[in-house]
Amino acid sequence: NKLISYCLRTPFVVFVVYIAIIFWGAWAITNIPVDAIPDIGEKQVIVYTEWPGRSAKDVEDQITYPLSVSLRGVPGVKTIRASSAFGFSEVYLIFKDNVDYYWARSRVLEKLNLVSGRLPVGVMPVLGPDATGLGQVFWYTVEGKGYSIDKLRSLQDWLIRYQLNSVEGVSEVASIGGFVKQYQIDIDPNKMLAYNVHLGEIMEAVKRSNVDVGAKVIENNAMEYIIRGLGFIKSLDDIENIAVGEINGTPIYVKNIAVVRLGPEFRRGALDKDGQEVTGGVVIMRYGENAMKVINRVKQAIKELEKGLPPGVKIVPFYDRTELIHRTIATLREALILEIIITMAVVVPFLAHIWAGIMICLALPFSVLIAYIAMYYLKIDANIMS
């Protein structure tokens, strides 16, 4: 009663508070993360380890099992799940809900520094993207008439992916589809036997030949010149002319025992669009980011990026969560409009007082604004459920 009587005596104060809450609520709406569906997934950190060419059994015994056992001591871990496949391993660490996500990732990194020494030589485990299962907010394809899918994949890997990966709120841009171009050396075992050259010698020779070296500096006329030995492979001829051995002083080159060509890397999947294979990418949003803002930033970056693409090449959206988010927002808007109409239809005839209905209708969106303020400070995303 005291509160109501005070509000009746000081309408100006009520008006100021009302306006302040409206602006406060509008600010909360513009800053609260907006998504279509709630993220009910667990807090998980993925440890990915690649060991090319190895069977799932070898990966399980020498990578997955040692990692799973060693990572059990990470603070806050609730359970550990793991899977092994041909050439790679994935370990999923599920943390308790009260653990900070990025604190958990830092603890896993600390543990990996100790575990790496127990793994096979050259194997380096890495953390997966700092995202959740709902992080895939935008898919696109790279299309261009007259361009092969291997050229489009190279364009995606070396230009588009890096540009979009720098967008604020993006955790990772994963390439999918097409062929990854690589140098392939097909060795003839008969010629290798005839020249008495071993496979390890060929691999080591190619590895040593693909490197730049430094040789300090030389001084001339009070000027210092840096000496560089240029050795990086730039063409097929560079590989063919690598010496892998000698017979009576005559060098044996790679071209004498093998065929060198450009070819596609081994792959386990493809991207299909309308029955045609294409090349594209998946934009993964960082944990806790605003999906709507991230997608808008990605679209803006694509507009700027398309100016520098080769003629005829364009980036076509394949999946855009913005449409689903707009439909979710429309659900709230339609619900409010229906509430106001029903309220007016019920209150006005019964009370025979139109201003009473108007005051109640004004309170409905006002209460929604207050709810958004509470959601912002409780870190609850705006989605179809909330």
Q: Level of helix content?
A: 40-55%
Radius of gyration: 31 Å
Number of strands: 15
Per DSSP, the total helix count is 12
The chain-level mean pLDDT equals 88
What class would the helix/strand composition place it in?
Answer: alpha+beta
Tell me about the biggest sheet? 5 strands, antiparallel
Broad shape: elongated
The unreliable regions are: none
What is the succession of H and E elements? HHEHEEHEEHEEHHEEHEEHEEEHEHH
Beta-strand content estimate: 25-35%
Give the termini separation.
Answer: 33 Å
Question: Could you walk me through the main structural features you see in this protein, from its secondary elements to its overall organization?
Answer:
This protein is an alpha+beta fold and 386 residues long. It contains 12 helices and 15 strands. It has helices at 2-9, 11-31, 56-70, 101-115, 149-165, 189-194, 199-209, 236-240, 254-257, 291-306, 322-351, 354-377, and strands at 43-50, 77-85, 88-95, 126-127, 136-144, 170-177, 181-187, 213-220, 223-229, 243-247, 250-253, 258-264, 271-273, 276-285, 313-320. The strands form 5 sheets. Strands 5, 6, 13, 14 and 15 form a 5-stranded antiparallel beta sheet that branches. The protein has a 4-stranded antiparallel beta sheet with strand order 2-3-1-4, with helices on one face. It has a two-stranded antiparallel ribbon with strand order 7-12. A hairpin with a 2-residue loop joins strand 8 and strand 9 (223-229). Helix 2 crosses helix 12 (354-377) and helix 11 runs antiparallel to helix 12 (354-377). It starts with a helix and ends in a 9-residue tail after the last helix.
